[in-house]
Amino acid sequence: MSDPDADRTTSVLARLVGPFVDRTVAERLVISVAAILLSIAVGFGIVLVSGRIAECSTAAWTMPLTGIGFCYDPVEVYVVLFNGALGYPFAVGEPGLFNAGWTPLNLSFGLTLSETTLLIFTGLSVAVAFRAGLFNIGTQGQLVVGGLATALSILALAPLLPAGPVAGVVLVVVGTAAGAVAGGLWGAIPGALKAYADANEVITTIMLNFVAANVAYVLVLEVFRAEGSSVVATEYVPEYAQLRPWLFPTSSDFALVALLIGVGFIGALYYFVEHTSLGYDLRTSGVQAAAAEYGGVNAKLTTVRAMTLSGALGGVGGAVWVLMSEGRWLASIPDLGFDGITVSILAGNNPIGVLPAAFLFGVLKGGALEIGFRTDVPTQLVAVLRGLIILFVAMPEFFRMIGRYAGLGGGGVARPAEPDETAGGEGGEADA
Amino acid sequence: MNPAVHLDGITKRFPGVVANDDVDLAVERGSVHALLGENGAGKTTLMNVLYGLYRPTEGTVRLDGEPRSFDSPRDAINAGVGMIHQHFMLVDPMTVWENVVLGNEPTTWGGLRVDREAAREAVVELSERYGFDVDPDATVADISVGEQQRVEILKALYRGADVLIMDEPTAVLTPQEVEELYGVFEELTDQGKTIIFISHKLGEALSAADDITVLRDGVNVGTVASADVTREELAEMMVGREVLMEPATTPQEPGDRVLEVTGLSVDDDRGVEAVSDLSFELRAGEVLGVAGVDGNGQSQLVDAVTGLREATAGEIRYRGESMVGESRRDRIDRGMAFIPEDRQERGLVMSYDLTENGILGSQHDAPFARSGRLDWGAARDHAESVIEQYDVRPPDADAEAESLSGGNQQKFIVGREFERDPELVVATHPTRGVDIGSTEFLHDRLLELRSQGKAVLLVSSKLDEVQGLSDRLAVMHEGEFTGVVDPATVTEEEIGLLMAGESLDDDSVEGAALHDAATGGPGDDPDGATAGEEGVDA
């Protein structure tokens, strides 16, 4: 609360988002859990209402006393959503807390973890840019470009090496590196545009998403399309160069090694941000650009660096998607990059927080598939319930973020009850 | 007759802190009362109790003898108590009269329509009654800070305030605006209003107030009539010990040239030339003071020297090397310390704790960084040593910068920069917001650096500070030095003339400029343009 002009112009915003800015980690966790419960309560109502509107031969649930029947059972929906995402570890309607014979190595849990793994990379990509004060909406494009580079580099190199596990390791490493480089370069473009031409990175990254998707589509369609393929896709990379499911069922498309690599990236990024000079530069630019400049940080270079790193992480996400999920580059790419934005917001842009945030997304994805198998609830309604949970959980963090972005917090807005210590000198008083 | 405001035995406790301890305060109707004390003495807390922001733990608030209990500022406003905060609460794009009536608009149609004519009329009438020179139709964004303050006062008066509380009202004003504010005080008290203002500046309390109450550590040390007390006595009441008002400088022969500035021109953010063809030099073991009304190019000069702003023309040489194209990083590495003007924008990262803030600027240098990795243990030791030496409170390296008071933030920045072992210290308002006990200490440290042979470029709006510490005193007006004078012999009147842009005819200028030809005012260098083409400083 230093600049009186900013104080005045943001006073309305301050009242709206101020209370969210200065929360501690513990408070934020409590807020997140409360938000999930609240979203479930709202979702309950929506399931009931749609269950009343929908037509079905037998009611899935009948309201006690009134005898009104509903087509969908809200309790069942949420039980299946969370329990099903893990492969039903909890016994419902049967004796005992746990189902005997449950093993974590089941298909549903594999699907959940597969989604989690992919979102770790895109979540980290968005988070690292956010930490530098940059809104990278372009992780999707960086993922597309990175994935294509991975597929093409492996397809080009594979014939030169003798097939086998050794070649597999080499190809995976080279392919992932190619994805990182391509994604990094793709991310460096909006970084450089921002630093040297003052082009807003939100706009440029969104535009580059379209460029990436369409250029990649045309390239594959015209040049690299697999022979005889009915869809726009490259050839499959050799099986030994894929990240194959291990322990988990094959159809889960989940390779434990990829998750471990993701967790390794989380640790590395956390160390980078908190314990290195460049990380200090990066996050100082993010929270207070003028102070960073005062401290000798080259703002332009830091912008380019952060966007390059962010793009590289998106590119690695693309590599993992190609090597683990599809085995080839395919034109129909899920919105992993966009979900990464929400994951990052959910995580408070903290690398460590990306793990639980990505897992929540994974659970919602895996659980939604289970609801489709087990109940008559339409997928659109499940998507609404997912959206509700994400909206409720992300909103406080989102408020916090725009609050910080607007330079709020740390003043009197969120904590008026402080003694004269904060209000004695001239300058930064609790004044709101 | 009962006093207009009577605080009776107010105690306010926060967890772990007693902010006010059994404070009595009586303010007579129609008087100006200064509440004086160092940072953290409990002034603002006491006023927040009166304004209904805090409930007192013990004690009673009486207005005109009536005990009152306020649950919120709204109650206080209804009882005729208004508060003007240091940072104004105005809506920039709206007009003056709109701001004044905002929230209490006169309405017609049963509250559905704002009666704009009546509202504007009421504001005009009010500002005429108190002789305020404010255009009611001007947009707040376009008027000066002093006028904005008057709009705030009008807001309080419009809501029927009889008692006006002002928190550090002069902090944001120019000297002229301060004079005008004192005039406003007189106008208001003539019409029976009562004013309480918070301050930590002795001179301000002495010249503007009828009575002065001094708080120290949450306790009322005493209330005195300003006519019966001296600066020294007041200072002693505030600090609790005797304070030397004049820093002790000893003459010293300056050494090598550390900073040479030739033909420097710098633009401000709007692209308007703020520093024009300026030349001067600064030697080791010398303090060059720069005085002037804020906004006459001092900020841009300092930014250009420290590498935060590119010069449009001219050259800066530092220890014999041209700084053209050298980044801020390079200048830090070459031993330039910089106490910035805006401590909360630049000097500190508000959301970082003091350990993290202690390495700002040194984050790539040993002992805090080794091959790119940060050593947080070393950083913490450093922060703790600065905290201890410079008496930063609370003494907690884990405290976030934003939780510190302004004065303590400043002490931490000054400590961090002084302990950098610099060759050149660029200090902008180094003691702004710092209480007088700590100011004394910071001045001593600054003179210690000088005697160790460091060069100091000191920019301050406190005239006694620049005059007392400098070996030479440059006065800046509209981007140029109107004179470089000997601070020991120059009078305040002469400085005032120079600050207003007039030149001095007598030879007090020459006495100071003895050892350099390049101290130039505007007329010194008719060929300044040639210097300007030498290069652009990055």
TrEMBL record, chain A:
CDD domains to which the protein is assigned, alphabetical: TM_PBP1_transp_TpRbsC_like
Membrane-protein topology: Multi-pass membrane protein
Primary site of residence: membrane
Keyword presence, Cell membrane: yes
Compartments reported by the entry: Cell membrane
Keyword Hydrolase part of the UniProt annotation: no
GO cellular component: plasma membrane
Any coiled-coil regions, as ranges: none
Keywords: Cell membrane, Membrane, Transmembrane, Transmembrane helix
Tree of life domain: Archaea
InterPro entries in the record: ABC_transp_permease
Protein name, per record: Inner-membrane translocator
Transmembrane segments: 29-49, 70-91, 111-130, 142-161, 167-189, 201-220, 254-273, 306-324, 377-395
One Gene Ontology term of the molecular function aspect: transmembrane transporter activity
TrEMBL record, chain B:
CDD domains on file: ABC_Carb_Monos_I, ABC_Carb_Monos_II
The ABC transporter domain, residue ranges: 5-242, 259-503
A GO molecular-function descriptor: ATP hydrolysis activity
Keywords of the record: ATP-binding, Cell membrane, Membrane, Nucleotide-binding, Repeat, Translocase, Transport
Location within or outside the cell: Cell membrane
InterPro entries reported in the protein's UniProt record: AAA+_ATPase, ABC_carbohydrate_import_ATPase, ABC_transporter-like_ATP-bd, ABC_transporter-like_CS, P-loop_NTPase
Entry membrane topology: Peripheral membrane protein
A single Gene Ontology CC term: plasma membrane
Region of interest: Disordered: 506-538
Lineage: superkingdom: Archaea
Gene3D superfamilies in alphabetical order: P-loop containing nucleotide triphosphate hydrolases
Compositionally biased tracts (Low complexity): 528-538
Bilayer-crossing regions: none
Protein name: ABC transporter
Native organism: Halorubrum tebenquichense DSM 14210
